[in-house]
Write a structure and sequence with these properties.
By secondary structure, the protein is of the alpha+beta class. The protein is 26% helix and 20% strand.
Length: 277
Amino acid sequence: MGSQCALGAPCEAVRIPMCRHMPWNITRMPNHLHHSTQENAVLAIEQYQELVDIGCSPVLSFFLCAMYAPICTLEFLHDPIKPCKSLCQRARDGCEPIMNRYNHSWPESLACDELPVYDRGVCISPEAIVTDLPEDAKWMDFTEDVMVQERPQDPECKHLHQNRCKCKKMKPTLATYLIKNYSYIIHAKVKGVERGSCSEVITMVEVKEVLKSSTSIPRSRVPLFTNSSCQCPPLLPNQDVLIMCYEWRSRLMLLDGCLVEKWKDQLNKRVKVCIIN
């Protein structure tokens, strides 16, 4: 059902039993083992259930889920995040001796040498997920309020907007800018906010200046899309703001974990210095 969301997202709720308790709850197919559906992935990952049960490595299930049900984020739609090489080695070193007793070796499809090294690329491990993954990866919640399609006037829809919106406040620091790797930065004035459905908010802004973008953004009114019943970060009409967020399929997104700050001239200078450096 997650693949049929308002924006046509390729993300879907994790349904693989072994992976339902991971720190992420959305995945995408095909996975790193080229399984086209989660149903196919379940059949393949189940062969390791006995190893997980005997506890040959405390990180085995995390590693397997990172391979079979990779985390889905807006920033890595075309190149999903792989588990780190060191994570693979820890899982292999703990479990391969037991596999060898039964005349099995560590499978080539899970070869550790093919995976990225933590300090030379983007990868996932239990230690890194707390601080280094994009905020939308950690917090995006594929619960009913994201996936239903009723209109706001529908009585079934009203409860979705009550007491559910808790937006995180992001600080406009250089560290935030570098870690989050926002794909667009604009100076804009908020013109209005609309609810397209229970699962989508559209914020209209008038773009005054484009400071960074991977696609062409016109100096005119453009929509920012929030694929949630909550508008995070919150914006009100007539606000003059700096917005840093992500582009997805040529759409400008407005997501929890993105940055919105009241516009100040000195902020403009700081941002330009960050971009140049």
